[in-house]
Write a structure and sequence with these properties.
The protein has about 350 residues and is α/β, with parallel strands linked by helices. Helices cover about 40% and strands about 20% of the residues. It has 2 domains: about 240 residues, Periplasmic binding protein-like II (D-Maltodextrin-Binding Protein, domain 2); about 90 residues, D-Maltodextrin-Binding Protein, domain 2 (3-Layer(aba) Sandwich). β12 and β13 form a beta hairpin. It starts with a helix and ends in a 13-residue tail after the last strand. Keywords: Signal, Transport. This is Putative aliphatic sulfonates-binding protein. It is found in: Periplasm. Part of a binding-protein-dependent transport system for aliphatic sulfonates. Putative binding protein.
């Protein structure tokens, strides 16, 4: 009940903001505003909204036209956001905004999903002599650079008192990582759902560990800061739709799986299994819930994967009550409406 009380608070916050005005979001020339949304194959809630057409209907009164763009992973998605090719980014792992901030990207954190640590895992071959994280020493590992599973890798190595130099890391996109794993070109694959769900039933694979206790795995929704500042009503609507899509997905697991199965190229049972490990509880970002971002930034910098230290408290966070972007370290008390 506590979780749904928080989700109700999210909806109430968004509805309050929406009631502030109903003018259209047209450009000065009178043309419809384009909302360019970037997403990944694993962007569940955006896939649900896209398939059901609910977001298009919600922004229609503002004369907004949505354009969809699929990206292979979160890093190129945020690069497109920084380049002005995307206005809103579907969920990306908590690691991705840290890399974007290091690149001085002009973005704002709009929302986050509550932690889903078991939605990440370390996959090894069933007959491999790997039974603990310490057994990864000297092994060949596939991981997607800057993905949440990349932080899981660093955290897992640290817990086993290993350094990145103690293993052989290959940075691969999910599809390439799976192919390398199936060819036995790598000994372990650090992945996230639905990729984990797609292979965990394979008789030749097994789960070594999940992310529990290593990485909380919070996924974030980002927007171009200039777009959000220019179109706060659109941000309000997208947030409200994401909250509702998360509630609907958890309440209708079979219907959601039926929608997602062809999108992900998986059977419905596998999709349902993957979705049980994601909370899909969307909330506003508050400074109190932002601490792990700094730990992630520090870990990647120490591993020499970031060009400079990153102060995550200086990142921009969307203030729904004030309808503006504020620095995380100066977030107002109004943002605490959706804290846990």
């Amino acid at each position: 009940m506590k979780l749904f009380t928080r989700l109700a608070a999210c909806l109430a916050l968004a509805l309050t903001a929406l009631s502030a005005g109903s003018a259209t979001a047209q450009t000065p020339s009178g043309d419809p505003v384009k909302l360019r949304i970037g997403f990944q194959k694993s962007s569940t809630l955006i896939a649900i909204l896209k398939a059901r057409g609910t977001l298009e209907r919600a922004v229609a009164p503002l004369d907004v036209r949505i354009e969809w763009g699929e990206f292979a992973s979160g890093l190129p998605l945020t690069e497109a956001l920084n380049a002005g090719a995307v206005d809103f980014s579907a969920d990306v792992a908590d690691t991705v905004p840290v890399f974007a901030q290091a690149a001085n990207a002009n973005f704002v954190y709009v929302a986050q999903e509550t932690p889903s640590p078991s939605a990440q895992a370390v996959i090894v071959h069933r007959d491999a002599p790997i039974h603990t994280l310490a057994d990864l020493k000297g092994k060949r590992i596939a991981v997607t650079k800057a993905a949440g599973s990349h932080y899981l890798l660093l955290a897992a190595l640290a817990s086993a008192k290993l350094l990145p130099a103690d293993v052989k890391i290959s940075y691969l996109a999910p599809a390439d990582a799976r192919a390398a794993f199936e060819r036995n070109d790598v000994d372990a694959w650090f992945a996230w759902d639905p990729y984990v769900a797609s292979v965990e039933q394979d008789p030749g694979a097994r789960i070594l560990v999940r992310g529990d206790g290593l990485a909380s795995y919070q996924r974030y929704y980002l927007a171009s800061a200039p777009f959000a500042q220019a179109h706060p009503k659109i941000i309000d609507i997208v947030f409200k739709q994401l909250v509702e899509a998360g509630i609907w997905t958890k309440a209708h697991p079979q219907e959601a799986a039926k929608i997602l199965a062809p999108v992900w190229g998986l059977d419905q049972a596998t999709v349902e299994r993957a979705n049980t490990r994601r909370t899909y509880a969307v909330r506003a970002v508050v400074a109190k819930n932002f601490g792990e971002q700094q730990a992630i930034a520090d870990t990647f910098y120490q591993a020499k994967l970031l060009p400079k230290p990153v102060d995550t408290a200086s990142a921009l966070v969307w203030d729904f009550a004030g309808r503006k972007a504020v620095a995380a370290n100066a977030a107002t008390a109004s943002l605490t409406a959706t804290q846990p």
